[in-house]
Design brief:
heterotrimer, A mainly alpha (about 625), B mainly alpha (about 160), C mainly alpha (about 110), A: about 625 residues, two-stranded antiparallel ribbon, 25 helices, globular, C: about 110 residues
Chain lengths: ~625, ~160, ~110
């Protein structure tokens, strides 16, 4: 099997898994359906790994044209894949983390009767996500973009009998759609201005200086608007916390590791375009930092274990966008990779805890789970330490890199990001301590059911923990090693040089200060959580504001949703029923009336008929005679 | 001599035609129509179409008119069983008939009536020549007309049959 | 026999046929009795027959007379069927007045 066939099979295997499960899922037994999906994905991962060798060394990457799509005199769009180093990283993350989550879902969704449908949707989602990153032009990416939005809707609303889940799924889909408008406008603009949607050609044009700043700014702003929808940044982030209504593997896969990273991927793909528009980059920087900060503040007071992790995701995505805005594209990818590992780990661990607690998700009712869930506890601890940036775990390196790049761009932004890191540490440690430490605060019924999860759940947890621990080595900073593997690996794919240098002195300071700060926070939070004050309800003004997520959802509702509803009602009541319906009814009334009038010709009197016949003949003769 | 025959026959034909239309009793109308047919048969003889004249008398005056007479007598339509049309209707009818006449004459005025060759008409209307034309050039219509007659027979029998309850 | 047409031109026959035809048309329009109307239709057919024979003699072709032959056949068939229909109408409505045949009104 050649490289091209292998590359083609990578998205095809999950698609086959989807087809089998969606059509025959009801007939197949649960284990068969789920194993088909999981094995399809593991096979895909195997293919990706085997592609590392040939493509990793190839600077140009592999271009695979599947077929012509649109072809006109001035534009040429084909359905084709392009696999370069950036794609390889994304593919590895998607298939690797994806297969672990599939394995996990076998244990987690074991009792669900629609398990095979769940796996079908999971496979479909992976297929679309693979299309997104494999696409060589913006249109194929857009197919994947829309597809993952659809699968997100299907999976969030998987337990469809509960209406709240349906509302959350709809909210996610609609907000995504609003962002898609930006993406579409960018696609149209690119098509008209550049006559092509291929990434390689656009990057060439941008690199060659053929694009004006104004045009680049417009396209990149539209693209960023699309990215805010997909990657949950301000202003389109409100769907992500609500999306926690879906099953936990869904939250892990879609809202931690893959779909939300699509926005970052898109921006990095067209990095040469973004570099031409400094206004957009500054905007992205500011929005990223603001989102990170606000999400971290809201996360401080959440009491649902999954909601805390959701806001943490929004916050970390803000970090990634801040990196992009600072021009550090490969740092953003680095943090994307490490985030995929530790966030998936945290979500899966949370799922394991929820499973053990018989469905309880409020952390105020947990506690003292160390003895009962040893593996879960240990892996969750590793995940927590990673996210707060504790050395030598992965995020220490990726987060520090982002902080350093931010400092080289703007001291104020660096300050806010550092503040966000502190807040991250506080809320994550609060989450950890409230969930696992001290004594058990749940009911006796829950206590009797506490058990460690089966192997299908714990094996992925362990593997992800290992990944979190050791993936930092891929991007060691300058002070430690001269060779930043990830930067040099991605260099041919991301053509933009990463600027931003900080002095070695600053690096050492940053590392030292962060370690010390983390240790202090650890001790303080542990003390705080073991007391009673952590569990009390706080009714102060700021506390209430944060509890209600700064009332942003309510603001959206009254400003936008209600007005749209009013417009819809008016359009339906006036335009639709009076104008459109009225017009159509008028046409039919006219026909009716004319029919009623004309039918009087049928008087039934034979004499009149004969007379009209004769008159007709006379007329014919006259015409013939006259036309002679 | 033949001119006189022509004018006399034409007068008889026209007069009886008008009387067909305006006669009060249907039986009288039938009888006047028979007279008209005889006059027209006379015209045929004048034009040397002797076979056609005989056939005309046999078929029309002999068969069709007898049929008409049967029906009239069967339906017992004597005298004024029908009310005349309104005056307006009559006026309209006469007007239309007059217009028809005018148009027809105007239209056929431009017919080519030049006398091309005047040959002896001896062989034209005879049975032999007509039969030859009928059975060679016009064979298909001839055969089809037999089918037509068969259809007419079947149709009229089926139509006029009384339902056997 | 002296060819008749040397003395009586074709136009005479044309006028005669037109007169007969329009008398027939007037009869159709003026009478209410269905049988009389039928007879006036026969009158019209005969006018046409006359004209056809005249033209056939004038152009010295047998086609005209053959056509008259066929017209007679058709007239015979038509009368048979038409009178059968008339009888049916009389049976249903006990009158052959065409003003009473108004059922196909709107």
């Amino acid at each position: 099997m050649g490289i091209r066939e292998m590359a083609l099979m990578i998205p095809l295997l999950p698609l086959i898994g989807f087809t089998i499960n969606i059509f025959f899922g009801k007939q197949l037994p649960k284990s068969v359906g789920s194993w088909i999906s999981t094995l399809a994905l593991i096979a895909s991962f195997g293919l990706v790994v085997s592609l590392w060798g040939p493509i990793g060394a190839e600077p140009l990457g592999l271009h695979l044209t599947i077929g012509e799509w649109f072809s006109s005199s001035w534009a040429h769009i084909s359905f084709s894949f392009h696999i370069d180093q950036l794609t390889l990283i994304m593919l590895s993350i998607i298939t690797g983390v994806g297969s672990l989550i599939h394995l996990y879902s076998q244990g987690y969704m074991h009792d669900d009767e629609n398990q095979n449908t769940f796996f079908a949707y999971l496979n479909l989602f992976v297929f679309f996500m693979l299309l997104l990153v494999l696409g060589s032009n913006m249109l194929v990416t857009f197919i994947g973009w829309e597809g993952v939005g659809l699968c997100s809707y299907l999976l969030i609303g998987f337990w469809y009998k509960d209406h709240e889940n349906n509302d959350a799924a709809r909210k996610a889909f609609i907000i995504n759609r609003i962002g898609d408008l930006g993406f579409l406008i960018a696609i149209f603009t690119c098509l008209i201005q550049f006559n092509t949607l291929e990434y390689s050609k656009i990057n060439e044009l941008a690199g060659g200086g053929m694009i004006t700043t104004g045009l680049a700014t417009m396209i990149t702003l539209c693209l960023f608007f699309g990215a805010t929808g997909k990657s949950a940044q301000i202003p389109l982030y409100t769907w992500l916390p609500d999306a926690m209504a879906g099953p936990t593997p869904v939250s892990a896969l879609i809202h931690a590791a893959t779909m939300v990273t699509a926005g970052i991927y898109l921006v990095v793909r067209l990095s040469s375009l973004f570099v031409l528009a400094p206004i957009s980059l500054n905007l992205i920087f500011a929005v990223g930092v603001a989102t990170a900060l606000i999400a971290a503040i809201i996360g401080l007071r959440q009491n649902d274990i999954k909601k805390v992790l959701a806001y943490s995701t929004v916050s970390q995505l803000g970090f990634m966008f801040a990196a992009v805005g600072a021009g550090a594209f490969s740092s953003a990818i680095f943090h994307l990779g490490t985030h995929a590992f530790f966030k998936a780990l945290l979500f899966l661990g949370a799922g394991s805890v929820i499973h053990a607690m018989s469905g309880e998700q409020d952390i105020r009712k947990m506690g003292g789970l160390t003895k009962a869930l040893p593996i879960t506890h240990f892996t969750f601890l590793i995940g927590t330490l990673t996210i707060i940036g504790f050395p030598p775990f992965a995020a220490f390196f990726s987060k520090d890199e982002i902080l350093a790049m931010a400092y080289s761009k703007s001291v104020w932004m660096f300050f806010f990001l550092a503040l966000t890191s502190v807040l991250t540490a506080i809320y994550m440690l609060r989450l950890y301590f409230l969930t696992f430490s001290n004594s058990f605060r749940g009911t006796d019924h829950q206590a009797s059911h506490l058990h460690e999860s089966p192997l299908t759940i714990t094996v992925p947890l362990v593997l992800l923990a290992l990944a979190s621990m050791f993936s930092g080595v891929l991007g060691l900073p300058e002070v430690i090693s001269d060779y930043h593997w990830l930067n040099s690996f991605l260099a041919p794919a991301i053509k933009v040089q990463q600027e931003g240098h900080v002095s070695h002195f600053f690096e050492y300071c940053l590392m030292g200060v962060s370690v010390v700060a983390l240790i202090i926070i650890f001790i303080l939070v542990r003390k705080w959580c073991s007391g009673e004050k952590a569990l009390q309800v706080n009714n102060g003004f700021w506390a209430k504001a944060i509890d209600n997520k700064f009332y942003i959802d309510e603001a959206y509702d009254s400003l936008i949703t209600q007005n749209f509803a009013r417009i819809s009602k008016w359009t339906n009541g006036v335009l639709e029923s009076k104008l459109v319906d009225g017009l159509v009814n008028q046409v039919s009334l006219t026909t009716l009336l004319s029919g009623q009038t004309i039918r009087r010709i049928q008087s039934g009197s034979t004499g009149v008929y004969i007379l009209s016949m004769v008159l007709g003949i006379i007329t014919l003769l006259v015409f013939q005679y006259l036309s002679r | 001599m033949s001119e006189i025959a022509f004018y006399v026959l034409s007068a008889i034909a026209l007069l009886s035609a008008v009387l067909v239309v305006f006669a009060k009793s249907p039986v009288h109308s039938v009888l006047y129509l028979v007279l008209c047919f005889f006059a027209i048969a006379g015209h045929f003889i004048l034009m040397n179409a002797e076979f056609l004249a005989i056939v005309h008398i046999i078929v029309y005056a002999g068969a069709i008119m007898v049929l008409f007479l049967f029906v009239v007598m069967m339906l017992n339509l004597n005298k004024d069983s029908d009310q005349p049309k309104s005056n307006f209707g009559k006026l309209g009818a006469v007007l239309t008939g007059g217009i028809m006449l005018l148009v027809l004459t105007a239209a056929s005025k431009s017919a080519d009536t030049s006398m091309a060759q005047v040959q002896s008409l001896g062989e034209l209307g005879t049975v032999q020549s007509l039969g030859k034309a009928l059975f060679t050039t016009y064979l298909l219509p001839f055969e089809l007309s037999s089918v037509l007659l068969f259809a007419a027979i079947a149709g009229s029998v089926m139509l006029a049959k009384k339902d056997i309850d | 026999m002296i060819p008749l047409l040397q003395q009586i031109s074709l136009e005479h026959y044309v006028v005669l046929a037109c007169l007969l035809f329009s008398v027939g048309v007037t009869g159709v329009l003026i009478r209410k009795n269905a049988i009389i109307i039928f007879m006036c239709v026969e009158l019209m057919l005969n006018a046409v027959n006359l004209l056809l024979v005249a033209f056939s003699a004038h152009h010295h072709s047998a086609g005209g007379q053959t056509f008259v032959f066929f017209i007679m056949i058709i007239a015979a068939a038509e009368v048979a069927v038409g009178l059968a229909i008339l009888v049916m109408i009389y049976r249903n409505m006990h009158s052959v007045d065409i003003d009473k045949l108004q059922n196909l009104k709107w």
